[in-house]
């Protein structure tokens, strides 16, 4: 189940972070605490991917390159790499199963956006 974590930055009132062993969810809020965007990462310890939605950019789906390409080199910074194909219905079902403890309105908003991603064109603008 996703649990809200504390963010200790100047943005703490404008960004919410939820996490569990296999998922991360970051939500950006405007001054009236309405969602401006989110990134939902899944399969953190396997082949991690991220579905993003932002009000001004739309949807994108990415694979997360962990930066761990070689055991003989230092780890590099993780990066989002374009990966447009995904099963939005499966991702929505997964999100709904792990987000039961979230605020109902926020949970519904994100769930609706994920389900809409099945028919929306991916922008892949990072």
Descriptive account of the structure:
By secondary structure, this protein is α+β, with helices and mostly antiparallel strands. The chain has one domain (3-116). It contains two helices and seven strands, in the order βββββββαα. It has helices at residues 88-98, 104-116; strands at residues 3-5, 15-19, 23-29, 35-42, 49-54, 58-65, 79-82. It has a seven-stranded antiparallel β-sheet, covered by helices on one side. Helix 1 runs antiparallel to helix 2 (104-116). It is globular.
What's the structural domain tally?
A: 1
> How many strands?
7
Task: Based on Cα principal axes, name the global outline.
Answer: globular
Overall structural class, as computed from helix and strand content, comes to alpha+beta
pLDDT < 50 stretches:
none
Mind describing the biggest β-sheet?
7 strands, antiparallel
Topology:
Blueprint: E1 3-5, E2 15-19, E3 23-29, E4 35-42, E5 49-54, E6 58-65, E7 79-82, H1 88-98, H2 104-116
Antiparallel strand pairs: 1-2, 2-3, 3-4, 4-5, 5-6, 6-7
Notable traits:
single chain, globular, seven-stranded antiparallel β-sheet, about 35% strand, alpha+beta, 7 strands, about 130 residues
């Amino acid at each position: 189940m996703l649990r809200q974590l504390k963010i200790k930055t100047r943005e703490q009132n404008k960004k919410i972070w939820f996490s569990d062993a296999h998922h991360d969810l970051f939500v950006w809020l405007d001054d009236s605490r309405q969602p401006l965007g989110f990134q939902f990462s899944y399969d953190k310890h396997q082949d991690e991917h991220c579905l993003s939605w932002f009000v001004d950019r739309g949807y994108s789906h990415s694979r997360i390159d962990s930066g761990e390409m070689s055991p003989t080199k230092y780890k590099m910074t993780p990066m989002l790499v374009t990966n447009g194909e995904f099963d939005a219905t499966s991702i929505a079902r997964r999100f709904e199963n792990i987000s039961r403890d979230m605020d109902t309105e926020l949970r519904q908003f994100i769930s609706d956006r994920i389900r809409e991603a099945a028919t929306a064109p991916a922008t892949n603008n990072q």
